[in-house]
Specification:
The protein is mostly helical. It is 90% helix and 0% strand. The protein contains three helices and no strands. The chain has helices at residues 2-22, 24-44, 51-91. The longest helix is centred in the last third of the chain and has 41 residues, at 51-91. The protein is elongated. The protein starts with a helix and ends with a helix.
Length: 92
């Protein structure tokens, strides 16, 4: 069972990296889901070998993807505001 989990997490990581190259939106969601799975598995198997590192790496992945999504959303909103101001100035 643990070999299956290791293979599954490794293949999910590789798939997330490849998906991020082609579609960053779905790639970031897959990274976030991978982090959630790692946190859950680290909690379920706590006290066993590599469970603590799995838990903390999962939290780190979730933190990075959450912060990245919020920062990119803020940048997109500011870019749209600048574009609207520019279009209003051109129309005047």
């Amino acid at each position: 069972m643990k070999k299956f989990i290791g293979i599954f997490l490794t293949s999910a990581f590789i798939f997330a990296v490849l998906l991020s190259e082609y579609d960053s939106y779905y790639g970031s969601w897959l990274f976030y889901a991978l982090g959630m799975m790692m946190v859950a598995l680290g909690y379920i198997y706590k006290g066993e070998e590599n469970s603590t590192s799995c838990f903390w790496v999962g939290l780190f992945i979730m933190l990075i993807t959450f912060v990245g999504a919020n920062v990119s959303g803020k940048i997109s909103i500011e870019t749209i505001e600048i574009l609207r101001e520019t279009l209003e100035n051109i129309e005047e």
